[in-house]
């Protein structure tokens, strides 16, 4: 009896492993997948996500980690806040971008150099999170591959100067494309940055001043409001 | 100071298109500004190297101010009193902007530099700043102010760099980290 139970467990384990390691199959009609994705995500009015960012450099035995939250409110408001090991807030909307750094417990607003560059990055993050990838086809060649447990959207920069720094960007989602689980940025030399998203809350109502570019609300208050208080 | 026309060159226009790197214009700023690294007078004579374990990985957050504009950087310093210093600088999303090794005898190897940072700048500025703070025998006229044991300001004529130590992991770092051949093949 014990042997039988062990065999059943083993079969489950092998099946689970197989599902995870199932080879990704390229999807031929990526355009229709992207349209489906955009349609599914169009109902997304706002989203709250925790993230862990792991910088994997070949020389380091362990990844260099940071963590924080990403908030997207409305069509174009984004707040990317690093909470550890340092505190920094990036805010952007359709008009402007702002960055704050915490110094000795006080937030200092930076006089940003060339904010249009930062805003462009933030805009692209909003588009990716909202599944509006068709808007990125001018800058990236997008392919899709799936297996039973995973869908991977791979974005390869069209500009060779960009490719010299960023070989590819992967967006990893469940097979039904219902959420962004991970974003992986591959560099040409094999180093990579992995951003893992957790604690997703959809269509939350953010408190006033969450995206205020003069004095953003403290993240603890935002977390409490969306039900992600520690 | 004059700002040459490279601000509007085709190369510069292409660089502007690089989506991930919002430090691009530092290239022009540093090129156009005073690129001499003549230090301002030293204000604080504390031996900053003594603030760190002899063998450690130190994470710092930096705010670089150039011509009144500010940019944030992350710095990862592998320190070994016997084997040298290795600094990797990344931008906000993790892309490596510079990678430099300083041997115990002070010799500098620039192992990687990405726009806007040219190898010469990495060697002249980042390596010099690294030595100012972490070297066992720091440069005697390093322009570093120590505002607290975890807060430093380096001020040169062309820029100001404010650094905060956010994490220190004591312990031996991998030997290849300090090998310009093995550790340079990235």
Your description of this structure?
The complex is a heterodimer of chains A (230) and B (186). With 230 residues, chain A is of the alpha+beta class. Chain A contains five helices and twelve strands. Chain A starts with a helix and ends with a helix. By secondary structure, chain B is α+β, with helices and mostly antiparallel strands. Helices cover 17% and strands 35% of the residues of chain B. An eight-stranded antiparallel sheet of chain B has the order 5-4-3-2-1-8-7-6. The longest helix of chain B has 16 residues. Chain B is globular, with a radius of gyration of 16 Å. The N and C termini of chain B lie far apart (38 Å). The interface between A and B is large, with 39 and 44 residues.
Question: What Rg of chain B, in angstroms, do the CA atoms define?
Answer: 16 Å
Class of chain A in CATH? Mainly Beta
The third-level CATH topology of chain A is outer membrane lipoprotein receptor (LolB), chain A
CATH superfamily of chain A: Lipoprotein localisation LolA/LolB/LppX
* SSE class of chain A: alpha+beta
Of all chain pairs, the largest interface belongs to: A-B, 39 and 44 residues
Largest sheet of chain A: 12 strands, antiparallel
Count of separate structural domains of chain B: 1
Strand order of the largest sheet of chain A: 1-8-9-10-11-12-2-3-4-5-6-7
Quaternary form:
heterodimer
Nearest-angstrom radius of gyration of chain A? Answer: 20 Å
Q: Report how far the terminal alpha carbons of chain B are from each other.
A: 38 Å
| Beta content of chain B | 25-35%
The run of helices and strands of chain B is: HHEEEEEHEEE
Spell the H/E element sequence of chain A.
HEHEEEEEEHEEHEEEH
Count of alpha and pi helical runs of chain A: 5
Our count of domains of chain A comes out at 1
Shape of chain B: globular
């Amino acid at each position: 009896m014990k042997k039988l139970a062990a065999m059943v467990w083993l079969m489950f384990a092998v099946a689970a492993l197989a599902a995870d390691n199932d080879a990704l199959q390229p999807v031929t009609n990526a355009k229709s997948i992207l349209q489906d994705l955009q349609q599914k995500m169009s109902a997304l009015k706002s989203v709250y996500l925790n993230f862990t960012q792991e910088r994997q450099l070949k020389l380091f035995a362990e990844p260099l980690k940071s963590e924080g939250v990403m908030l997207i409110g409305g069509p174009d408001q984004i707040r990317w806040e690093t909470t550890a090991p340092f505190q920094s807030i990036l805010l952007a909307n359709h008009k402007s971008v702002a960055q704050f750094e915490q110094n000795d417990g006080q937030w200092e607003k930076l006089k940003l150099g060339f904010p249009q560059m930062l805003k462009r990055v933030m805009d692209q993050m909003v588009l990716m999170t909202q599944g509006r990838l068709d808007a990125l086809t001018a800058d990236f060649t997008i392919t899709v591959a799936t297996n039973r447990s995973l869908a991977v959207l791979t974005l390869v920069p069209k500009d060779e100067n960009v490719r010299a720094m960023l070989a590819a960007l992967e967006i990893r989602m469940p097979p039904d494309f219902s959420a962004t689980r991970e974003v992986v940025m591959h560099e040409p030399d094999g180093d990579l940055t992995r951003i893992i998203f957790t604690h997703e809350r959809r269509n939350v109502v953010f408190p006033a001043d969450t995206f205020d570019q003069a004095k953003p609300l403290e993240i603890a208050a935002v977390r409490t409001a969306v039900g992600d208080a520690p | 100071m004059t700002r040459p026309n490279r601000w509007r060159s085709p190369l510069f226009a292409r660089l502007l298109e690089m989506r991930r790197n919002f430090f691009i214009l530092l290239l022009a700023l540093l090129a156009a500004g005073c690129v001499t690294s003549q230090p301002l007078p030293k204000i604080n004579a504390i031996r900053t190297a003594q603030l760190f374990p002899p063998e450690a990985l130190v994470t710092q957050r930096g705010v670089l101010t150039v011509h009144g504009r500010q940019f944030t950087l992350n710095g990862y310093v592998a320190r070994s009193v016997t084997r040298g210093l290795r600094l990797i600088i990344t931008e906000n999303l993790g892309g490596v902007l510079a990678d430099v090794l300083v041997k115990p005898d002070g010799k500098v190897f620039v192992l990687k530099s990405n726009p806007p940072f040219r190898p010469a700048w990495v060697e002249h500025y980042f390596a010099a700043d690294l030595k100012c703070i972490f070297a066992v025998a720091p440069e005697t006229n390093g322009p570093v102010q120590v505002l607290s044991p975890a807060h430093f300001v380096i001020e040169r004529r062309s820029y100001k760099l404010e650094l905060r130590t956010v994490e220190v992991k004591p312990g031996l770092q991998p030997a290849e980290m300090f090998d310009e051949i093995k550790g340079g093949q990235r």
